[in-house]
Specification:
alpha/beta; 7-stranded parallel sheet; 5-stranded parallel sheet; 12 strands
């Protein structure tokens, strides 16, 4: 009899087909031996109770797993896996896309055209900024941060970061915020990084600087950001994630110097299929072969019995 699994969201076709060939995909979480969840799901004690004592693995469809109560999962002997590496390029590319859309005023121009406002080509019309010569400050030089740094260098930017490796110039956070033209966030959400960028940090950024966040929404104090943007204390922001996602504050929606996207960091066909396949591999390892999956984030919970 195939082990039962539960999917909180539909998955790409090739992934769904693989799972259906190996498991019984249930419409009910109760009695499931494996779950596939996404970072928007709250995976906590209540969900574990609902699933029942057969639950052995939660395969998180994403790199970040701050929405999973890993400590409680470990206490219950439930493995948690994630999907690193395969979304690095997609998320880094989106970061650069957001930077360009903001500095070259692409989204703002799109809104102007769609409103059918009058416009005409002129030497001073909708002037933006190029990337060459700008300082790109990366906070979080992990896989994605490094790829953003590489792409930034290709555009002729100076890359600085807060800590990580000797590949790029390292600066203390306050100095990075002061010097960077573009501050790009690539950190996980932890107690230490919640509101990492708040009123004090925003006050250190210059009036021509912009903030980009493709990591987790609560890394930024959204209320403080709206205030800084509205008062033009910083020049703009490009956000793919939000403090109370999927809610976006009315203050952000009202601003022209902001580019907003709906958590599209890994949203390419190739990346999402690869992420799904890592989830499938983790489920198969635990439930079919009694093996520790390669991407387990709490291997101490492993029990092969």
């Amino acid at each position: 009899m195939k082990p039962q699994i539960f999917l909180t969201r539909p998955l790409p076709g090739v992934v769904a087909a693989r799972l259906e060939s190996s498991f019984t995909v249930s419409e009910d979480v109760a009695g499931s031996a494996g779950l596939v969840t996404i970072p928007a799901d709250v995976v906590d004690e209540a969900l574990f109770d609902e699933a029942g004592t057969d639950l052995r693995i939660v395969a998180n469809f994403g790199v970040g797993y701050d929405s999973v109560d890993v400590e409680e999962a470990t206490r219950r002997g439930i493995l948690v896996s994630n999907t690193p590496d395969v979304l690095t390029d997609a998320t880094a590319e989106l970061t650069i896309a957001l930077i360009l859309a903001l500095l070259r005023r692409v989204a703002e121009g799109d809104r102007l055209v769609r409103r059918q406002d009058e416009w005409a080509l002129a030497p001073t019309f909708m002037l933006g900024e190029g990337l060459a010569g700008k300082t790109l400050g990366i906070i979080g030089l992990g896989r994605i941060g490094r790829e953003v740094a590489r792409l930034g260098e290709a555009f002729g930017m100076r890359v600085v970061h807060t800590r990580g490796s000797g590949e790029y110039e390292e600066l203390p956070l306050d100095r990075l915020l002061t010097e960077a033209d573009i501050v790009s966030l690539h950190v996980p959400l932890t107690p230490e990084t919640r509101y990492l960028i708040g009123p004090r940090e925003l006050s250190l950024m210059g009036p021509s600087a912009v903030l980009v966040n493709v990591s987790r929404g609560p890394v930024v104090d959204e209320e403080a950001l709206v205030e800084a943007l509205g008062e033009r204390r910083i020049a703009g922001a490009a956000l793919d994630v939000y403090e109370r996602e999927p809610h976006v504050s009315a203050g952000l929606l009202a601003l022209e110097n902001v580019v907003l996207s709906p958590h599209l960091g890994s949203s390419t066909h190739a990346a999402r299929e690869a992420m799904g396949m890592l989830c499938a591999e983790a489920l198969e390892a635990v439930l079919l072969r009694s093996e520790l999956p390669a991407n387990a984030v709490n291997p101490e919970a492993w029990n092969a019995e």
